[in-house]
């Protein structure tokens, strides 16, 4: 669990944050000493502090809280490889969706062409960044010696939300989209009343957003089998799967 460094809490309905005190306590018992950052609604830090203090628990590692904004798209984390964005969802209480997006990767060196042209080692950083180079005082286009960067992937997560096409600009062209599908279409009115989505509506958002794959989740307990929801989603968006613990999705296909 030392590898976990960021936790994203979309909103303060119990099924989305009640597990956090237990998770942090487990990390503590396992001897975690590395800090962790929790992105969350503004009320969560005091709630968590009260829960932990009642049991007399003092964490052996630092927890930094960063408050989410619920009215616009915001970059909440960035390093040299990825960006994490939050964006508003349409639910009964303030709720955020998230997108984890790889930054543009460096160009790849075409070793054969570099060798033929006498490209030297000190030229490589510029080529990787897509910059032209000088060989014997002559400028050469970097594209002569490079291959296109590998694809940068994007994963979007929409936890609890009613059908809302304003999401599309935030998630369009994602390689993988998780979108809640609490109900089937026969319970469409129930979905509307509770600010949730049907599987059909989730598939429609996926189709209109131009994403590559869709994962459905957050199923109502009234469905003992989820084939009904999967089937109705696939009629609109064939590349649909149902969330399953431990499943691996190959985004290269």
Describe this entry's structure for a reader.
The chain has three domains: 1-67; 71-104 and 151-253, Ribonuclease Z/Hydroxyacylglutathione hydrolase-like (Metallo-beta-lactamase, Chain A); 108-147, no CATH class. The relative contact order is 0.10. The protein contains eight helices and 14 strands. Strand 11 (154-158), helix 5 (168-171) and strand 12 (176-180) form a beta-alpha-beta unit. It is α/β, with parallel strands linked by helices. Helix 7 (199-209) runs parallel beside helix 8. Strands 4-5-6-11-12-13-14 form a seven-stranded mixed β-sheet, covered by helices on one side. Strands 1-2-3 form a three-stranded parallel β-sheet, with no helix packed on it. It is globular.
Number of domains: 3
Q: Biggest sheet, open or closed, and with what strands and sense?
A: 7 strands, mixed
Write the CATH homologous superfamily of the largest domain. Ribonuclease Z/Hydroxyacylglutathione hydrolase-like
List low-confidence stretches: none
Please estimate the helix content: 25-40%
SSE sequence, one letter per element: EHEHEEEEEHHEEEEHEHHEHE
Number of strands: 14
Strand order of the largest sheet: 4-5-6-11-12-13-14
Radius of gyration: 23 Å
Q: What structural class do the secondary elements suggest?
A: alpha/beta
The number of helices is 8
CATH topology term of the largest domain: Metallo-beta-lactamase, Chain A
Report strand %: 15-25%
- CATH architecture of the largest domain, by name, is 4-Layer Sandwich
Average pLDDT, all residues? 94
Sum up the overall morphology in one term: globular
> Span from first to last CA?
30 Å
**The CATH class of the largest domain:** Alpha Beta
